[in-house]
# Entry
Amino acid sequence: MIFYKGLKMKIIGFSAGVVGRDSNTDRIVKSIMEKSGYDPEFIKLTDVDFSACKGCSWLCAKPQVCLLDDDLLPYYQKVREADAIVLGSPIHHGTISATMTAFISRLWGFRHVDFAIKDKPFVLAICGIGHWEDTAEEDFRKKLRSYRVKIVDVVRHSSVIPPCYRCGRHQECSIGGAHSIWGDDAHSLTITPELFSRWENDKETVQKIEAIAEKIKNIIRL
# Structure
């Protein structure tokens, strides 16, 4: 555990990974936190009940923290107090997921008077079909820009696991992710465990996560 002047350095991670599964996105977020040496806390956004920002700025302006009373209420003060934040999202519809977008919108409570999380170190993780990674990263950065946080680094993993592998209709579908990857061969594709790639087996992703963890270790809050 990393300590600074006798205090544990804290890191909190939020993943918008697939509902109810220990997804690549979930495991990347967890791995970055664990390897950082900080005291970690992990929240799976798809397993908690919350809404996007409702625009009630008259409530959050004075405390500079979101006060909507749902499952995220306990975590926004933790974001404010953490030494680093990790956000992970799968790629949905060519960009970060609606779940992650809703979460980021709730950071608006910090955007009053003096930017309560200004320069807070953030790490971003993106998983999905490779040709959408540039767009997803650009959108991720853009949505966080108005909070003036510090993006330490971004890890991108081409997991190439379309939802079609689980929905079971790839043999009759010509518009889904499986068809975009395999073409008409998707209609006769047999879904096997080997198609569900894991980031732990991708050397480039493993090295990137190690490098990011080292960067986080070197963050010292003055």
